[in-house]
């Protein structure tokens, strides 16, 4: 089986928390049981089928999202579910997801993009399909101050 794992191994999910169309979900740091190799085309040979408590079915996870040990604390002393405000410039991504200056979002895990790893968080903003990686310098526990000159977005 990929990664030298065996059926029944307990592994921890180290990616950003996700909820699927089926209603099944996985949270950053949650432990689950290996139930077989991943069978989705995108994950085949690179991942495992995992069963997490409370789910109806298994979830395919890349090996890079799994660990035998619990993941380290999130950067900046933040926790899953924290509400933070985006203080960077508004952006729209190729996926159609977007984030606006001053918008609040929920921490769903560590940033997983190479450029942001260890320096940011995965954030879920209302209306988006997925999470967005944000540098810690773009996030605040408090809403950003008004724009200079009374300008608005």
Overall helicity: under 10%
Looking at the structure, what is the overall shape? elongated
Give the CATH architecture of the largest domain: Roll
What about the largest sheet? 5 strands, antiparallel
- Average pLDDT rating: 92
Return residue spans where pLDDT drops below 50 for at least 5 consecutive residues: none
| CATH class categorisation of the largest domain | Mainly Beta
Domain module tally: 2
Number of helices: 0
CATH topology of the largest domain: SH3 type barrels
Task: Write up this protein.
The structure is a single chain. The mean pLDDT is 92. It contains no helices and 14 strands. With 153 residues, it is an all-beta fold. It has 2 domains: 2-67, SH3 type barrels; 75-140, SH3 type barrels. The strands form 4 sheets. It has a 5-stranded antiparallel sheet with strand order 6-5-4-1-7, with no helix packed on it. Strands 13-12-11-8-14 form a 5-stranded antiparallel sheet, with no helix packed on it. It is elongated, with a radius of gyration of 17 Å. The protein is 0% helix and 34% strand.
